[in-house]
């Protein structure tokens, strides 16, 4: 594959920290790279160096003279006097950009409902983020470098973005670098994963699920002493393999390896035991919303009904995810549960022993601690906590959430956003509520810390209600999902996939009702690569053939390894066997790539 961009011996150092020692990497046509690692380990810095935005202290970045790189940073900078349209398509005439299907698709996917001629100064931070992403995507780039592109996007927009990237470049062309904590997105768009840690970069094949598998295998083969980390990764791998239907369509050679690793791994949660514990702490009654409705007058004679006639009986130990577009009424619904809001109609019944706590998007509750050290703050709360049947001290809980002993002496106001988020969760858990509401809990957390939070919540024996645009987190910690759609509260037996289908159908109905196939210059998304029935049938037959051949290659590789061990002192024989192994590896790489392309085309 053609080389696009390379970096040799990159060294980057800040006044208090060496970020990278000597990193050498390359990006070829068709590479879709997800960059993961702990917050502060250099993910964004690496991407900026590769994109030419940040100069390394030593080493060099090279790229072909004709290669273009489009960069989405975490900050959006616009002239506030620009309109939405100017920011996205510049001064191009409407007939020019409106005739481009790619531009219409981007507008439809990200800013369909935005006022086209409104000044940017009227937009919220989340809306500006969408405009910034749309401005980048309407351009033609050989490489896209995206830093947290899913921030401020809802589930529908994240799904659209993944589909857009997967069909953006024809065949095995173009390149992608993406830094994100959204693990579903990483799994959906990436065929390579780079983990940055301890001043180095470690490459892995495949998206997030494949990365987790290889990481567990790496730690096991190295006989790592990080027992807790291994167990946590195995647990996540078990969920990847068992819990999400969309992930079962993996090559068989990976499924077999995963099955061997998780053969004795117990289920993520003992639902019966947790339900019993929740009932003992809560009683049989939690919160019942019975035929409730909420209507706002909005200060005008015209009233606005958020929803009406909603009945929701929340059970002890229930773990529910709530979906819906911004403004649909998710927060209003949760405010009824907490008691902060009274319904306009219907009634809310609350059990006598119910204690509700909310992990909000803001960190205002930590402001009162200021210069207090973390250890001082937690000392004012409980001296022990029971998680997973084991008694733990607050310090042990903090360690489980990624704090080091040295960080216990850090003033609260000096903590990073992710550290504050974890401390916020711990303080809530130490109060021992029996109903916990999480409002966008994945903000500011890297993938490892999200896994640690999920592991902690697995053993939490209460009722859990989650609002999140992070699909992976939502599916991982909840057992059922509901959606607030058009004033109704609907159960989703098919989970997030069912919600996306309902949302798409609703959008189509709105477009049909308007009698206009476009909205704000946008257009309904078309898939130019869709297969005919005969093509799909042929593609599925080819998939089966590739899977059979990959199985045979695995068997042949094992035999060659055994022969190499048997003839270890015969260097000529070993050289011949090694050459055969290299041939198999090359064939395997080509087959895996073809498998992935065919799999995407037939889905």
From TrEMBL:
The keyword Nucleotide-binding applies. CDD domains: ABCF_EF-3. Transmembrane segments: none annotated. Residues 536-594 form a coiled coil. InterPro entries: AAA+_ATPase (IPR003593), ABC_tran_C (IPR032524), ABC_transporter-like_ATP-bd (IPR003439), ABC_transporter-like_CS (IPR017871), ABCF_ATPase (IPR051309), P-loop_NTPase (IPR027417), Val-tRNA_synth_C_sf (IPR037118). Residues 5-230, 287-511 form the ABC transporter domain. One of its GO terms (molecular function) is ATP hydrolysis activity. Keywords: ATP-binding, Coiled coil, Nucleotide-binding. Pfam families: ABC_tran, ABC_tran_CTD. This is ABC-F family ATP-binding cassette domain-containing protein.
